[in-house]
Amino acid sequence: MTEVLSLVAAYDALIALGLIVALFLFFVLELYPPEVPAAGLAALFVVLGYVGQDELLSVYLLASALTETVTNNAVAVVFTPIAIGLADSTGLDPRALTMAVMFGASASFATPIGYQTNTLVYGAGNYRFSDFLKIGLAMNLVAAFAACAGILWLYG
């Protein structure tokens, strides 16, 4: 007979995953200067054909995805130097990518563990994890396109 994972065990596993991601990012940034991961990310974007608004949206979505498992402060601190290095190596305005990181790190709607208020509402309102996914993913996408459109309008 198979066992079903309890909600507490799933929550603990997600917290552990978030800690592993955060520790890995801190390790990479301690081991390498920010230019090295930025150059690797820039090379990946060039190979995949992402330039301009695609790159801006990619940085936003990556920051938003990371902030679902790690706190927004950690994502902003770790990812901002990488975004600035990426902007320098691709010729984009560093302010645009920095704003994409800031907005992306603040867009934590899809999980109850991404932000403290989500966790409080999750417990008090008897919501399920899937409730956050249903509404939160749509909110993340709307926020992504609105923020990137505003950043492109501001910085061209």
TrEMBL record:
Cellular compartments annotated: Membrane
Keyword Membrane on entry: yes
InterPro entries the UniProt entry points to: Cit_transptr-like_dom (IPR004680), DASS-Related_Transporters (IPR051679), Na/sul_symport_CS (IPR031312)
UniProt KW keywords: Membrane, Repeat, Transmembrane, Transmembrane helix, Transport
Stretches of the chain forming a coiled coil according to its record: none
Annotated Gene Ontology cellular component terms: plasma membrane
GO biological process, any: transmembrane transport
Membrane topology classification: Multi-pass membrane protein
Pfam family, one: CitMHS
Residue ranges crossing the lipid bilayer per the database entry: 6-29, 36-53, 59-84, 96-115, 135-155
Tree of life domain: Bacteria
Keyword flag Transmembrane: yes
PROSITE patterns assigned: NA_SULFATE
Record domain Citrate transporter-like: where: 62-155
This protein's name: Sodium:sulfate symporter family protein
Originating species: Salipiger abyssi
Species classification: Bacteria, Pseudomonadati, Pseudomonadota, Alphaproteobacteria, Rhodobacterales
